[in-house]
Design a protein that fits this description.
Strand order of the largest sheet: 1-2
Helix content: 25-40%
Distance between the termini: 8 Å
Number of helices: 3
Largest sheet: 2 strands, antiparallel
Radius of gyration: 19 Å
């Protein structure tokens, strides 16, 4: 099937978070007419021991950790940089990942070869069929 040429599922998750963070910061700076020339977001995912995480509710086993580093390019004041870092936390994907998530899983009938329109605007389909 695949040859490991594309991103893995965690890399896709990080890409979604990075893109959302960058877009959120950019939209805010544009609205304020601040001299933001660019935003770079670097992300990494790891699993760490819960006992090593002072801010985690979980105290045993492993927890997922996402490291997010933001570079703000432009002649911004220190207060503008700090405000943009606060705004980065308001990215919808960031809020989703930190909030309570419920995943409802159902088994559907086998799909036909006819393409059917998505039911909702945010439906997404992934298939490994050849």
């Amino acid at each position: 099937m695949g040859n490991d040429l594309g991103p893995n599922p965690y890399e896709l998750l990080l890409a979604a978070l990075g893109a959302c963070t960058s877009m959120t910061v950019r939209m805010y700076a544009d609205r304020k007419q601040w001299p933001l020339q660019g935003v770079q977001v670097r992300l990494g995912h790891s699993r760490i021991y819960a006992k090593d995480c002072a801010t985690c509710d979980t105290k045993e086993g492993l927890v997922d950790q996402i490291d997010l580093e933001i570079s703000l390019i432009g002649s911004l004041s220190e207060s503008q940089r700090q405000r943009l870092m606060e705004i980065a936390d308001h990215c919808p994907v960031h809020r989703t990942l930190l909030g309570e998530i419920q995943i409802r899983m159902t088994l559907s009938a086998p799909a036909s070869t006819d393409k059917q329109p998505a039911r909702r605007s945010r439906d997404f389909c992934v298939s490994d069929s050849i």
